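step=encode ok
step=design start
structure_in=
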């Protein structure tokens, strides 16, 4: 059976292969952005939504945030703080800076992760998700801490190839309610 680190390495290799074909990645990201915006509209999740600034290797690309901003009232984005803690700020389409981990982060007023309780959905990055809704992140635990005890639905954004039969997980890992890919929306039972 594969370990979390084995699966992470496989998914990172796949993401690198996508970056080697920028036009393919751009097409997949545009389709995922359309799917994410349709997901929130069709489910009436058009108030507050939490998302993320996609890294060059992550699903969503440049199309994700503008699509969500058009579909929702407010989009909150994470800010990495010391000790694996996330703060959140409003995406305004313009003001951003490079954060502590080299990730683009919004500027402006900061909120604790309690602001996620006001969201209709949290759209979280993932390296993989399995058919039971178990999400595999990068391993630093930022999202695990931010989402702990949250009753708001969480949807993982992944590429179709990142949906696996099984993702290694620990007892403290919590499944996501849905996975969004460029081609589909997967709802998971029991979440």
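sequence_out=
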């Amino acid at each position: 059976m594969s370990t979390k680190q084995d699966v992470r390495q496989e998914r990172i290799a796949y993401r690198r292969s996508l970056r080697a074909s920028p036009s393919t990645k751009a097409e997949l990201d545009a389709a995922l952005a359309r799917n994410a915006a349709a997901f929130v509209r069709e489910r009436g999740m058009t108030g507050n939504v939490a998302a993320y600034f996609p890294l060059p290797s992550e699903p969503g690309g440049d199309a994700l945030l503008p699509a969500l901003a058009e579909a929702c009232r407010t989009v909150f984005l994470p800010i990495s703080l010391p000790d694996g803690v996330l703060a959140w700020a409003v995406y305004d389409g313009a003001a951003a800076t490079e954060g502590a981990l080299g990730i683009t982060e919004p500027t402006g007023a900061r909120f604790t992760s309690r602001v996620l309780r006001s969201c209709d959905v949290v759209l979280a990055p993932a390296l993989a998700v399995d058919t039971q809704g178990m999400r595999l992140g990068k391993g630093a635990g930022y999202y695990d801490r931010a989402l702990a005890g949250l009753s708001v639905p969480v949807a993982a954004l992944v590429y179709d190839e990142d949906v696996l039969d099984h993702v290694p997980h620990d007892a403290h890992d919590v499944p996501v309610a849905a996975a969004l890919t460029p081609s589909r929306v997967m709802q998971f039972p029991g979440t």
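step=design ok
step=annotate ok -> The helical segments are 4-19, 22-42, 64-71, 142-147.
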